[in-house]
Amino acid sequence: MAALLRRPARTALYRRLTAGLGEAVDEVTYPVLSGLARFGPRSAADLAAEIGLDRSGVSRRATRLEDAALLRREADPRDQRATLLALTAAGEEAVEVMRRRLAGGIEEALASWPPGEAEVFARGLARFAEQGPFDTL
Asked: Is the pTM of this model over 0.70?
C-alpha cells in the first residue's frame, strides 16, 4: 500500500498518462484536470481541498491549463463574486485520453492474473475504499 501512495509512484504514473498531450499537460497539472473531471466545476479553494493541494498551487496550475485552452474560468452562478474552474472541450478530450491510457495500463497489469482473480481484487478494493480507514466525508 505504501508503494502506491508514495509521491514518486504517483508522479511516474501521471507522467505516463500525460505523455505527448501538450506542454501544459504533465504530472504537475494532472491532478487539476483529473479533479475537475471527477468533481465538475469548482473554485480553486474547493478543488484544492478535493485533490490535496493548496489554493495557490491549484491557481498556478489552472493558469497553465487556461493558457492552453484546456480550462476556463467562469462566474459561479450561486455567487457572482466567485470564480469557478471548468474544463473546456479540449480539456475533456485530454482527460478522456488519460482515462483510456489508465484503463489500458490496468488491463495490461492484470492480463496475466488467473481468471476471476482480477474481479475478486476489484470488488475487494472497492469495499476497502468504502469501508477502510479513509475519511471520505
From this structure: yes
